[in-house]
Amino acid sequence: MTSGTDRVRSRSLWLDTCDDDLAPRPALSGRVEADVVVVGGGMTGLWTALFLRESAPDCRVVVLEAEVCGFGASGRNGGWCSALFPASLPALEAMAGRDAAVAQWRAMVGTVDAVLADLDRLGVDAQAAKGGTLTVATNRSHVGRLRHELEVLRAYGFGPDDLEWLEPPAMRRRIGTADNFGGLSTPHCAAVHPARLVRGLARAAEAAGAVVHEQSRAVELRPGQVRTDGGTVVAPTVLRCTEGYTPALDGHGRDVIPLYSLMVATEPLDDDVWSQVGLRDRATFSDGRHLLVYGQRTADGRLAFGGRGAPYHWGSAVADRFDTDASVHDGLVAALHELFPATRDARITHRWGGPLAVPRDWCASVVHDRATGVGAAGGYVGDGVSTTHLAGRTLADL
Length: 398
Fold this sequence. Notes:
Oligomer: single chain
Strand content: 15-25%
Distance between the termini: 51 Å
Low-confidence stretches: 1-6
Strand order of the largest sheet: 9-3-2-13-20-19
Shape: globular
Order of helices and strands: HEEHEEHHEHEHEEHEEEEEEHEEEHEEEH
Radius of gyration: 21 Å
């Protein structure tokens, strides 16, 4: 490890290490006709385009991306391909009934393996490792909250194969947090390199026959067409997959709340540090605090660590300058050192962030109006790496 004042990168670790030069694809120019136009070149839009082409090879699909594919949350997130769904089981039961709530959560469990299988099928190396997730009680007050979470899942029929309690000795064998009062373990999560995933997915969608235009910012969406700053796509089906950037679109300023989540990453850590931190199976990790933190051991031996706490910006504003916040990033570094004292001498190489979409009912959704041909998917509240796959399958099917 090294120390010093080396420049810290503000672009995400993932985009810096995705083995892709990020050279933009040609922008849309002029008038184009298609069967489906997808607005947004993140995971949702690209999975949707891929599944549309695979299920209907004659379908003309055009994807429009304002920057480059993976510029948004798809290239900046924590890299948890998990079974987490933002709406709780009791909340889903209140919306749609108990059977539907359980079916939704079971669909998420199955989606984790479906993502990994599709990446393998498509030849996309996202450096995935299915080590599950550990949620550690790093404070005695966490124990009751985490045990209650376990009790809720048990009440809905989820068993030890889905979520189990680990006593402190068992938890310490897997993760070396400074304080450890036990916690929860689930196998239903894989650590992934999200930018490698989304950039590979863009190539796969193109190979399947979708046309992807980058540097093509949508300025008007309406039934039957999307107008960009360089041209227009005319299509009977218009699908909006813009997640945290949705409020920037005219007419969609109140669809979701863009909240910011920020991350930091260390340099590659040496074997002595990893012997203290653990995470040999690359389990993703969190703890029981209210202000969410999340992390993973990357394939190249770093700790990528993030959390909430960045301010909401008035009027649902979204701007590049909000992607970094010195006080929040400093707080994340302090939390990382508190959890893992062995990391105190490690250099922080990257600080970054970005907006995620929070719907007002805290529930991700997929919609499609057959009368107008307009559809949308999103609102993942930060749990999108796997949910985008399920949403893309659903949206393509609709």
